[in-house]
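Input/output pair, single chain:
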Amino acid sequence: MTQPRLLMVLNDAPFFITHRLPVALAARDAGFEVHVAAPYDEAPVAIMRREGLVHHDIPLKRGARQVGGELALIMALWRIVGSVRPDVLHAVTMKPVIYAGLVARLRHVPAVVHAITGLGYLFLIEGLAARIQRAIVKQLYRFSLRHRNAVAIFQNPDDLGLFCDNGLVDPAITVMIKGCGVDMTRFAQHPEPTGKPVVVFPARILGDKGVHEFVAAARALHERADFVLVGRTDPDNPTDVGEAGIRAWEREGILTWQGFAEDMPAALAQATVVCMPSYREGLPRVLIEAAAIGRAIVTTDVPGCREIVRNEENGLLVPARNGAATAAAVKRLIDDPALRHRLAAQGRARAEAEFSVDLFVEQSLAAYRRVSPSSFATP
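Output:
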């Protein structure tokens, strides 16, 4: 029996390391030759190669929609799929699902696993141009998701319902896997820090992630607590704030910016409260990490976030795009240590029960077995 091949296609190499590396390593250990197609990034690619994975560079630029660039991406995927000849192709996030799914159908890849991780900026904006783009994207999804032997993974019931209601996917091929799993040992429970409360925003500095609502809370409460941004800018995203905007907030004296965190457990452990009032998510892993660390969370009552945080159970839910409500929820947690500690304890327990990385890996490999049982046959 020849060694089966798995090709994982993603839009970002660091995202692969943080969100899908455990699955790739488990597939490798199960006997797969694992290939990863993602834009080149030196440090993540070095990790892939060290683990025996094969990296393929692709010209994918998140947020870009120029026809020439999209065609170049499709052609690159066409060449890679033709060269690798995968037994299973696993596409993660919108562009890989659409374009790699399209190529997989045309190239007759035997088995495909699609991971719908959220609907992105295009499904949040309004206007005629956005409606036209959404209509095109929906047609592309319809084609790509109709592979004869596929599984489509969804992270929350809202996205699943939207795809089924719009006829984008056959409900019979869908499965629900909540999030990407968190290593409960690495994200061990930490006691709350002493001293002045610290409120942490742990995400890319984007409008869509709710940074403006976080800033509204910081303006209202910075004398009561320290407000900290932990995350990078993202120039490819239309709602990116940019470094100049962040520095202006720092000069205003309402918050500090720590940039991208290499040590996420430490970044979250400094927090008294974690606050990410996002507009929509697939299922944000950082909120699982915050719950695992043992922190009360303020987030929004939107798809993805409410799958992790249950209001008054392990955090507080507020309406999206509402800075006043965000500030009020943060203030309530600052003022009530007993409530914070109760929510934090329940968050840790829920993270252990529902969102461990071991469970995520097991469910992901089950999806591979479903579409390609012969790849797991004993030689």
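Residues 198-354 form a domain with the Rossmann fold fold (CATH 3.40.50.2000). The first strand starts at residue 5 and ends at 9.
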